[in-house]
Design a protein that fits this description.
The complex is a heterodimer of chains A (440) and B (795). Chain A has 440 residues and is an alpha/beta fold. Helices cover 36% and strands 13% of the residues of chain A. In chain A, the strands form three sheets. In chain A, strands 3-13-4-12-11-2-8-5 form an eight-stranded mixed beta sheet, with helices on both faces. A two-stranded antiparallel sheet of chain A has the order 6-7. Chain A has a two-stranded antiparallel ribbon with strand order 9-10. The longest helix of chain A has 28 residues. The radius of gyration of chain A is 22 Å and the shape is globular. Chain B is an alpha+beta fold. Chain B is 40% helix and 12% strand. A four-stranded antiparallel beta sheet of chain B has the order 4-11-6-9, with no helix packed on it. The relative contact order of chain B is 0.10. The chains are: A alpha/beta (440), B alpha+beta (795). At the A-B interface, strand 1, helix 3, strand 7, helix 6 and helix 7 of A face helix 6, helix 7, strand 4, strand 5 and helix 10 of B. Strand 1 of chain A pairs antiparallel with strand 4 of chain B, so a sheet runs across the interface.
């Protein structure tokens, strides 16, 4: 038996399974390299991030015992202690539209509703609603090379059950009701999205120029092709044309912004084998993108709904989804608690990173608003009431931290999403299925 | 005699159009499948012309008075599925059995429950199998009459190439293998497949991916002489054991790696080889034997060396020469996995290739041979030669002749590049433009002029060539197909059948194995399986996948009956897998066909490690997941996830006084009526496979208890062990063939198969049965069906 990394026609002697990686050192080496932009930026702008985890949490050990300022961190949230002053726990929220017939649907709809406050429709074509991060991107992302960045850790799903599109499970970012944004799990590809293709500034400039003339030419061809298409397909071509124009705009933008003064760090090396390393690397890349203001908005699917991922470094050998159905058995609850806490610890790694990064007159964490949470509350019973939600960062002075905000029971999660929009400067009194704007 | 009137009626009813010309009568080329029309009683066909999409009227003669079917529904179904009781949320009106067209979707589901033996449930009043089957057959005939084959050639949406198709197209167009995961974002899956038109959206990151990929691929294909050195590292998979010979490496060596790498230029490259974790190259480490394309490479230090290599794909072999451990090691006492606690002295963990250094040219790569049809000797020859090269590439990429205006556009890009550099740079930039063209990235099927809106028409030969090649090869048509299509000969029935057979025998039909079977049978999920089984390593993971792929591949290429997926009295093994299965006398690292005795539990997919492992969790088997896999993939009866709030955690309670078996814990499903409704169907199927552990090792006991592989299916059939389960599934082989056809048709059309396609599906299944269920019969049935050959004009 033998194995190879690349697709090849003759499969008699070759098997797949080797990861191809562009090997160069990464992680911390990136950070000092990419400081130029943030320092030259006239004024620090707020960055917005949202991180999703599936299967809910042991809420009894998540919700802090005390409310208001100076609350005591719960067992699961303990890793956040170093950032207590810049963290708010919000309890009592509910995603009513995450409920749906069938348990597979219930999982898929949890991820779908998380940032949309909308109901995932069945059928081969996905239909949901625009997500909060994309509204923020419209506000904060139009003068950066990338309006937003979407990343995940796992491979896309193959079969999502109950007549639901896999997009509901595989992304939490929707540009429009019918436009899910694919999330990228390969750090190397994310890196190239951020910095472009090329080994030096001359090459990058030449390639930007070639990209622009290709896009320009394609636009004409697509418009001509559209005339020959059935009416039902013209909308699909419209979307294509819109996205072509958007990429044109972005490339022009990055041409203006990624000048010669930006030292591009070394590219990461494909998908790390170790899941913890993978998650940390994705956090690194988001911090880096924010720091260099290549984008100010990012979302991350730390793990997909229904995933049976195992996190060896958590000390728990159980598969994530299976363990979430703890059946009320104490040992299972204890192990699931430990896993929840481990994931919060990884999130804290991101906050550490943001806090350690100078940005304008403060740190990146001072100028960020980060949502960490799930669309499910108790994974054992699949409910969406009393969701596990944390918001971190100072939002450029607009958010006071260190509080446990206990909302009235069953307050729509969309009320918080609306409040987050207002916090970053989007004037709105409504989002998704909100009934108001939560006071933060 | 019966054929002619039917053809006339049918052609008129559904307005079959060839190309842009309306077919008015039966003298024109026959609509699809006249033979089938002759097989079916005329009474079941629509009696009068009707608009294509309207509900066809149902036969009146056969349904006069209360029918046997209506009586059946009253007697066996209506008690529970009544307005009052509404079991499963379903109400079946007995009178509706005589008018199934009004509620065809519901009746299709109801009939399937009967076909799979799930209804009526055990314990309820239940006629014998013959009566149930007769009812199902009669109902299917009614459903077929209500929505006859070809009545709904629903048109898939504008189809974008998915990632796999894109990579295969690049391979066939430019003789270049690309790692597409690093070039394009993931595609969305729906209905279990990643090639559904509706699900293949665009996004800004996709467009960015296309542009970036076009530039990278064109540089690589032409050869970029300005390339600066870069590094690529290949790693051995975790848990890969280096104990035995690896197929493709020199005999007498053990372990190692075989890497296929495309070298960008004729140049020097640096190779660095590291051992696996804990298995570095310290004192006493075995020698590494290096080969390039199978020929020995003499290097001073095989762990780091520089070597001149010509541009293009080469296979680098790194094998371990180890006299001390080369043979005679007792596997039971050694764990050669690269990340195990005990590692032998030396392994090959990674190989890093850095370069190019001192490049001497772009070389003579397969890609350049493919691209450069001509080489200009003088400046005046450049533009005509470029035109020829780009016109040829565009034709293959767009799957049709490129127009003069299109070639003009490409030439503008050529001129741009020529102005910046030389002829080759011009070709490179023209090529990049082809690779971002919507005509390349989208499978557009332009509508013919002159066909009225709402009418059905036959797709042209060029569209047919693309549909065929994306179905069977997941790639663009080859020269033969394009040529036949351009000449208008591809749609001739004899030519088409011959081409389908040719395509199935081509190595590119491997796409059906990796993409279709890989998704249908969950083989792709093997890559991410995590298991605590001690006898599992990556070699076994690869062998599991290989075995099932070889079985399916043999069915495809040797045109064997698809039922052999369940019954094959042979399988494909290498020594590692044979040891795992306890099959004697299989030695060596290569896979070969091995006959299995009649009592072998390894016959068919239900005994294969691939299926048994992807349906297990990290710590144990999951009879539930195995039952669910069988119901969904072999019997077409999806099972819902458990309702919220119920226990699904089945780990043993460490504090229990007595150890319990998984089966004892699963018995809880029977006690709770909410659980029982599904689990009494799923669990017995899984229990019958309990002699296979979480990685398919045969076992007689678990936790000190003998394995209990007995059970009773929903229809009362008693089971004891895998042979009984296989027989039970086979007793419903018609259902298996129906499901296989549905899946294959979903994959072929790139759209979901709906209830009103079921008449087409059943007709294909019936025809295939007459041809021994050979794989080509299924494929031809789909290729000749109305949904594959026709569209409805929408504008």
């Amino acid at each position: 038996m033998a194995f190879l990394s690349k697709k090849h026609l003759s499969r008699r002697t070759f098997l797949h399974g080797v990861g191809v990686t562009l090997a160069l050192p990464l992680l911390d080496s990136m950070v000092p390299a990419a400081t130029a932009l943030a320092q030259t930026a006239a004024k620090a702008r707020t960055r917005f991030g949202a991180i999703y985890f599936p299967h809910g949490a042991i809420m009894k050990r998540w919700i802090p015992a005390t409310t208001g300022a100076g609350f005591e961190l719960s067992e699961i949230l303990q890793p956040l202690a170093p950032h207590h002053a810049q963290v708010n726990v919000v309890s009592g929220l509910r995603h009513a539209l995450a409920y749906g017939s069938g348990a597979t649907a219930n999982h898929n709809r949890s991820a779908a509703a998380f940032l949309s406050g909308a109901f995932a429709k069945t059928g081969a074509k996905a239909y949901l609603g625009v997500t909060a991060d994309q509204i923020v991107a419209q506000k904060l992302g139009q003068d950066t090379p990338l309006p937003s960045l979407e990343v995940m850790i796992e491979e896309p799903s193959l079969n999502c059950g109950d007549g639901l599109s896999c997009s509901y499970r595989d992304t939490i970012s929707w540009q429009g009701p019918g436009s899910p944004l694919p999330m990228q799990n390969n750090p190397q590809v994310v890196f190239e999205r951020l910095f472009g293709d090329g080994s030096n500034d001359n090459e990058r400039r030449a390639r930007r120029k070639q990209s622009l003339s290709l896009l320009d030419s394609v636009m004409g061809e697509a418009a001509a092709l559209q005339k020959t298409l059935p009416a039902s397909d013209r909308a699909r071509m419209d979307q294509y044309l819109t996205d072509v124009r958007e990429i044109e705009r972005r490339i022009q933008k990055s041409g203006e912004q990624l000048g010669e003064d930006l030292a591009v760090p070394n590219a990461p090396t494909g998908v790390p084998r170790d899941v913890e390393e993978h998650i940390k690397l994705m956090y690194d890349l988001q911090a880096l993108a924010w720091q260099a203001e290549i984008t100010r908005v990012s979302t991350m699917l730390m793990c997909k709904e229904l995933s049976n991922a195992v996190y060896p470094k958590s000390g728990i050998r159980d598969a994530f989804h299976t363990l979430s159905h703890h059946s009320g058995v104490q040992e299972n609850i204890d192990r699931f608690t430990q896993l929840n806490r481990y994931h919060v610890g990884l999130f804290t790694y991101f906050l550490d990173k943001l806090k350690a990064t100078p940005d304008g007159d403060g740190t990146l964490l001072d100028h960020s608003l980060v949502l960490y949470g799930s669309g499910m509350s108790d994974g054992n019973s699949h409910n969406h009431t009393d969701l596990p939600i944390v918001i971190a960062g100072g939002a450029s002075g607009r958010l006071t931290g260190g509080r446990h905000i206990a909302t009235q029971k069953d307050t729509p999660m969309a009320n918080l999403l609306a409040a987050l929009l207002v916090t970053v400067g989007v004037q709105t009194d409504h989002f998704g299925d909100s009934t108001g704007v939560l006071a933060l | 005699m019966r054929l002619l009137p039917f053809v006339t009626v049918w052609a008129a009813a559904f307005a079959i159009v060839q190309g842009s010309a309306l077919i008015g009568d039966a003298q024109a080329p026959a609509p699809a499948r006249p033979a089938r029309a002759a097989d079916a009683p005329a009474a079941r066909r629509p009696a009068s012309p009707a608009p294509a999409r309207a509900q066809a009227p149902e036969p009146t003669g056969a349904a006069a008075g209360p029918s046997a079917e209506r009586a059946f529904v009253s007697q066996y179904c209506a008690t529970c599925h009544s307005e009052r009781v509404k079991s499963g949320g379903l109400v079946l009106d007995a009178a509706g059995a005589d008018h199934v067209g009004a509620d065809a979707a519901v009746w299709e589901k109801a009939v399937r429950k009967i076909r799979t033996g799930m209804m009526p449930p055990s314990g309820a009043l239940r006629p014998d199998r013959a009566k149930l089957d007769a009812f199902a057959t009669a109902m299917e005939a009614r459903l077929d009459a209500a929505n006859p084959p070809g009545a709904h050639p629903e048109t898939p949406a504008l189809h974008r190439l998915n990632r796999t198709e894109y990579a295969n197209a690049i391979r066939d167009l430019l003789a270049l293998d690309v790692d597409v995961k690093t070039l394009l974002p993931q595609d969305d899956s729906s209905e279990g497949f990643d090639n559904l038109a509706e699900a293949l959206n665009v996004s800004p990151s996709l467009i960015q991916g296309y542009v970036g990929a076009a530039m990278k691929i064109s540089r690589r294909a032409v050869g970029d002489r300005s390339l600066v050195p870069a590094q690529v590292t290949y790693s051995a998979p975790p848990q890969f054991a280096h104990d035995k010979h690896v197929e493709g490496l020199p005999l007498g060596t053990r372990g190692g790696m075989l890497v296929q790498h495309t070298f960008p230029l004729d140049a020097e490259y640096e190779f660095t080889v590291t051992g696996g974790p804990g298995g570095g190259g310290g004192a006493g480490a075995p020698r590494i034997d290096v080969t390039l394309d199978g020929a020995p490479l003499v290097v001073q230090n095989p762990r780091t060396f520089r070597q001149t290599v010509t541009a293009g794909p080469h296979t680098l072999g790194l094998a371990l020469v180890d006299r001390a451990r080369g043979a005679g090691v007792d596997d039971a006492y050694s764990d050669f996995r690269v990340d195990s606690a005990f590692t032998p002295g030396g392994a090959v963990g990674t190989v890093t290739i850095t370069g190019p250094f001192k490049p001497s040219g772009a070389g003579d790569t397969p890609s350049r041979q493919r691209i450069f049809l001509c080489r200009p000797a003088a400046a005046a020859e450049e533009a005509p030669c470029a035109r020829r090269i780009l016109g040829n590439m565009a034709r293959r990429a767009y799957r049709r002749p490129a127009t003069a205006a299109e070639v003009d556009t490409l030439m503008a890009f050529y001129q741009e590049g020529r102005g910046q550099g030389d002829f080759e740079l011009g070709i490179q930039q023209g090529l990049a433009r082809i690779l971002v063209a919507p005509s390349f990235l989208y499978r557009s099927e332009p509508e013919p002029a002159g066909v009225p809106s709402g009418r059905t028409y036959r797709i042209g030969d060029l569209a047919l060539a693309s549909r065929l090649s994306f179905f069977l090869w997941s790639s663009i048509p080859d020269e033969t197909l394009l040529d036949l299509a351009e000449k208008g000969r591809l749609s001739q029935p004899a030519v088409l059948a011959q081409q389908v057979r040719r395509m199935l025998a081509d190595p590119k039909a491997d796409a059906l194995v990796t993409n279709f079977a890989g998704q249908w049978l969950y083989l792709r999920e093997l890559a991410t399986v995590q298991t605590d089984a001690r006898n599992f390593d990556d070699n076994l993971r690869q062998a599991f996948r290989r075995e099932t792929e070889l079985l399916f591949g043999s069915i495809v290429r040797d045109d064997r009956p698809l039922l052999e997926l369940l019954t094959a009295d042979y399988t494909f093994l290498d020594e590692r897998l044979a040891r795992h299965y306890g099959v004697p006398n299989v030695f060596g690292s290569y896979f070969r066909r091995v006959s299995l005795p009649a009592d072998s539990p390894r016959r068919g997919i239900l005994g294969q490690g691939s299926m048994l492992t992807v349906t297990s969790v990290a710590t144990r088997t999951s009879p539930v997941a195995r039952g669910k896999w069988i119901l969904e993939n072999l019997l077409g009866t999806p099972v819902p996830q458990p309702p919220p709030g119920v226990e699904i955690n089945l780990e043993a309670d460490p504090k229990a006084e007595k150890p319990t078996t998984l089966r004892q814990r699963l018995e809880m499903h029977r006690k709770n009526p909410v659980c029982a409704s599904c689990h009494k169907i799923m669990d017995p199927m899984g229990f019958a496979l309990e002699n296979f552990d979480l990685v398919g090792t045969w076992r007689e006991a678990e936790a000190g208890w003998p394995i209990d592989a007995t059970g009773q299916l929903a229809d009362g059939t008693p089971l004891k062990g895998p042979a009984d389960l296989r027989a039970a599934v086979l007793s419903r082989s018609d259902m298996f063939m129906t499901v296989a056809t549905e899946k294959l048709m979903t994959y072929a059309l790139g759209r979901p198969v709906h209830y009103n396609d079921m008449a087409t599906v059943r007709a294909i299944v019936r025809d295939a049965a007459r041809r021994d269920n050979r794989f080509s019969a299924l494929v031809l049935g789909i290729v000749e069906s109305a949904p594959f050959r026709q569209r409805i004009k929408k504008s």
